[in-house]
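Input set for joint prediction.
Command: fold jointly, output tokens.
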Amino acid sequence: MDAAAIHQRLKVRFEAGVGDCDLQAKDPFIMVEPAAIVDVSRFLHDDPELRFDCLSNQSGVDYKAKGVIEVVYHLFSYPQRHHIVLKVDAPRDHPEVPTVEGVWKAANWHEREIYDLLGVVFTGHSDLRRLLMPEDWIGHPLRKDFVEPEEYHGISTRRESLLR
Amino acid sequence: MSLAGFEVEVQQTGSTGLETEEMTLNMGPQHPSTHGVLRFVVKADGEVMREAVPDVGYLHRSIEKISEKVGYHGFMPYTDRVDYVAAMFCNQGWGMVCEKLAGIEVPKRGEYCRVIAAEFNRISSHLLSVGTMVLDIGATTPFFHAFREREKINDLLEELCGARLTYNYMRIGGVAWDLPPGYAEKCLAFLDAFEPLIDEYDDLITYNTIYLGRVADVAAITGEEAINYNLVGPNLRASGIKYDVRRDEPYSVYSELEFDVPVGTGEQGTVGDCFDRYIVRMREMRESCRILRQCFKQMPGGPVIAKVPRKFKPPAGDAYIRVESARGDMGWYAVSDGSEFPYRCKVRTGSFAAMSIIDKVSRGLMLADLVAVIASLDIVAPEVDR
Amino acid sequence: MQDFLDSLIQQGYFSGVPRDVVYAAGMIIAGAIVLLVFILNVAGGSTFIERRLWARIQSRVGPNRVGPQGVLQWLVDGIKLVMKEDIIPTLADRPLFMAAPYVVMMGFVATFVVLPFGSRLVIADMNVGLVYLTAVTGLVVIGILMAGWASNNKWSLIGGIRSAAQIVSYEIPSGLSVFPIVLLTGTLSLQGIIKAQGWAPWDWFLFANPFTFVAFFIFFTSALAEGNRTPFDLPEAESELVAGFVTEYSGVRYLIFFMAEWGNLYVIGAVSTTLFLGGWQIPHLSDNVVLTTVLEFVTFFVKAYFWVLVAMWVRATLPRVRVDQLMTVCWKYLVPISFVNMLGVAAWMLVFPTGNRVVSFLMFLLGVSIVTYFFRRVFFHLRRAHVREHGELRLSPLS
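tokens >
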């Protein structure tokens, strides 16, 4: 099934929750509302003709200019061998997206990483704590306006430039 | 290091009136058998594990954020460090995602050079994986035999691109240099000597009773579980799912090459146990040898790199590609805003998911099995942390 | 030893000293000589030989820089370890931590008192030699438990407990498989057991009857397990427990643990030779006492060291078994088979009170055919490797 057909199916099923589909992009993607993502995911996972049983990638992108943090889901179906991309926009100052951990267990660690590096809170997550950064780190490093702290536990983060 | 988030439980098994506690062990960042800097907080009841929670992040080098500062071309050496055991695939992945963003086509000879480098790297990575797996189980000899062969491959790749581990051989649009003169003969001679040596492993360790006792029927992962947790590559194929990015969604010149995709069949135990993951890697090495021979026969002449501007400014948008790395399909996602620096770059590696499944799979196993499980899932720490 | 001291007393030395004191002093001095001259050198040299042997098996060279062909490597390693800083973890139990290596060493060195090196070379030929041997090797368990506990390290503790469980379990098939020998000879004294055998292979207890043949392999396996050697080296499983119960040890204490391990290999070899392979027995070649003694010593040493090399070879080849598999092998397989052996030998003795030379000879031929088959496989593989590599065949382990 191609992206247009999948978008059609989703639009019929979830009118409000599913936004536009950009077919001109290199990987056609479908915009989804944050509140609807869990139901959309479950539908995509369970529907016998779609069967998106694999969450191939889940990343967060910080669009500072647009004021959103976008969570991008790349889905793949092993039985049907088709792809789709979902994108969820969350407001940048208070990003909250429901977790899809119940649909794909792979989301567990991906969402922990997005929380850790970008600050998106995944509501309903079983174990939302930092994954890559130390537990007591302050700030979300991958954000565009992240300023590195001056020191961490007494170790200074300033290094003199070797180029001079 | 703190135990924040890993609380100790006091459990009372009161059947005999004895108060027993679960032991919280720290299989710490420095450990001879965790592959790289990984940490597990293991709660063990004697020898049997109740929980093995991984604590990652010791090797986090913020490679993804660095891409936003160094630009598309400059990021290529950093991709080597994402998975330094199988660095060619990371190079290839970054090259492919940039080419997809900008719509560049790599010349045929460049693609063949990429495949040759990648398949040699696959053999070398599998040799390391298999060798360290048997070393962790206790057999020291096959490890040295594997590394003996790996040295020869390192010498070949050093002749190709000057480095033994972090190659930086590929560029956006192709590869950096053509094959040196006389290279094909050397490689074919190596392959002739290497293929029969894979059989040495079967004689020595693969069907050894003690080894089978340690790996067969241990930590069997079913196909559905594997897909749900997004296991990829040899881990997924060992669980019975016949999927290989090279064959099912061919990229580069894999559609012109003939090779089989080995799948785990549970021949010594259950489908998807540690033995299946081991034997799938052994068989993939043979398939890689086949691919390499075909490449050397079929390589056309011509340029090895397309014309790519110095200031590489792909149109705004995002792209996602997958490369079948030694550890499974590695997904590269790049977002471009039209400037010469990537807006966002994300790598989704095979080991990331494999780490997340360890806790689930190791409940009820013994401490010795945890080592076998980590080794059979072929986890390298730099891939998990980036 | 006792006869030698008796002859000295008769000749008039030590006139004013009571007999027991003479015996005790003589044995202590002899023990010290054996310890310094024999045990340290054999244990140290074994480390070197093991490294070279391993290296050749693993397609590499091994230490060959220090001294001609690297033969001084073990001395230099020993000196280095002696010169290292003595680190004791802050929260470790100091008295136990410091005492543990010495307890292990005691348990191992004390076995040399009864080991015979020749017909006249034994420190104290006790008439309960075998029981003494088994009892004294039990000290090693205490030492290992002390080391594991006192290190204040959970991994060491696991290593120590695994080791204790392993050694205690494998004492049983080890002891049981030695019983057939006791039944055959009627004596527990090691010299007596050797004297009951002959110099020819078909006079050895190994080939006396099928039950002792099986008993030998059970004994060798159990002895390897008691010595914490691969495939049973879980207590020091490097890839799982860092170094098991010796994780926190450094310097001299580490040296003592490892000397005990390699020396224990020699004890395994020596006891196997004594019980099953005819010990120091040689055919009567001359009346010269010194020459005979030297030849007996060399025979015994060669036979015992052969088993040391086999143990090293096994370590290089096989992977490690898991704890529950180890216990399964011991309790579900080795112990029942040992019982069957014991009953079998008892029944055999009823049928053939003085043994059966025909059966011995047939067993010997079986042994010879197994060895011949083995060498044929070796040469088959060497020829196959030679064909592949088109290079020189190098068969010497020292090259």
